[in-house]
Specification:
- By secondary structure, the chain is mainly α.
- The protein has one domain.
- It has 10 helices and 2 strands, in the order αααααββααααα.
- The protein has a two-stranded antiparallel ribbon.
- β1 and β2 form a beta hairpin.
- The longest helix is centred in the middle third of the chain and has 31 residues.
- It starts with 9 loop residues before the first helix and ends with a helix.
Length: 287
């Protein structure tokens, strides 16, 4: 096997993508999959496999940083994993049952919707703060609290738990099929609907995504190994030797960036990114 430097430019791109993903909780595969499909023109199954594998390394790196910062609600995370993991297994097994264009169209529309909802949530919160409603809330009324490594305490309530579990299952299935969906749906549920503090929502989401992606990667690897040719393995190797180191670096930079960002700015940026990525995915579906 001969290694090639043909895809060297994926290293800085991967660093940038992983930094954004780790600071916002957005799945890096949202950005990697279009690059692999449209720019490198890889087969969909190959692109999904590479995107998931790369995301696994990047999110694992970020997970370590959020674990050190003590910003993960493990009780909530394990609750969601009970639904996201079976969803991912189903997604991998039935990935070929639905035309990829249909899944991408549905998810692209979903991204635009989530982006709009996140922005609306931010606007409503800002209005409430101006009215002095949020400041008057009694933290004792919240069901959950988490204290990070620096001693800062976050209080919140996980609302609409049925919706969260349904999103975990559906998001896991989409992740298994087209490599994206779980992190984005969790972002909508935790941040837009339940108003969980961004740092806790991102850290917990990354924890759930890492475990779910690991299951999906194993499933795709088994399926892929049975059909892939040696040339395809060569191309994959030449890509991941740059994407994996890139996301490992970005995985450490993202949490540091997140800690320095204003939560309001972060929420607006995430909402804009979701709308743009969703619109871009829709545009790529047009013949």
């Amino acid at each position: 096997m001969t290694l090639s430097l043909e895809y060297w430019y994926l290293l800085p791109i991967s660093i940038a993508i992983a930094t954004v993903a780790m600071s916002s909780g957005i799945g890096g595969a949202v950005f990697f999959t279009p690059i692999l499909l449209l720019w490198l023109r890889l087969e969909p199954t190959v692109a999904v496999g590479i995107a998931l594998t790369t995301e696994l390394f990047g999110f694992s790196s970020g997970l370590i940083a959020y674990m050190r910062a003590k910003l993960i609600d493990y009780k909530l995370g394990f609750n969601l994993l009970m639904f996201s993991v079976p969803g991912a297994v189903i997604g991998v097994l039935y990935a070929d049952a639905f035309p990829p264009i249909v899944l991408k169209a549905v998810f692209a529309a979903g991204l635009v919707f989530i982006g709009i909802q996140l922005f609306t949530s931010w606007r409503d919160e800002r209005r409430e703060r101006l009215n002095g409603e949020i400041e008057s809330e009694n933290s004792a009324a919240h069901e959950s609290s988490l204290t990070d490594r620096n001693g800062k305490t976050y209080t919140y309530t996980i609302c609409q738990k049925g919706m969260g579990r349904a999103f975990a299952a559906v998001g896991g299935a989409f992740l298994g099929m087209i490599s994206v969906g779980l992190a984005e749906l969790q972002e909508y549920h935790l941040v837009a609907k339940c108003r969980v503090p961004s740092a806790v929502a991102v850290g917990t989401s990354i924890f759930v995504v890492v475990v779910t992606v690991l299951v999906a990667v194993v499933g795709h690897a088994i399926e892929f190994a049975a059909h892939a040719e040696s040339e395809t393995f060569q191309q994959i190797t030449n890509i991941v030797i740059f994407t994996v180191p890139g996301v490992l670096i970005g995985g450490q930079l993202g949490p540091r960036l997140q800690a320095r960002l204003d939560p309001d700015i972060l929420k607006v940026v995430i909402s804009v990114v979701f709308v743009l990525v969703g619109a871009f995915m829709m545009w790529t579906l047009v013949p």
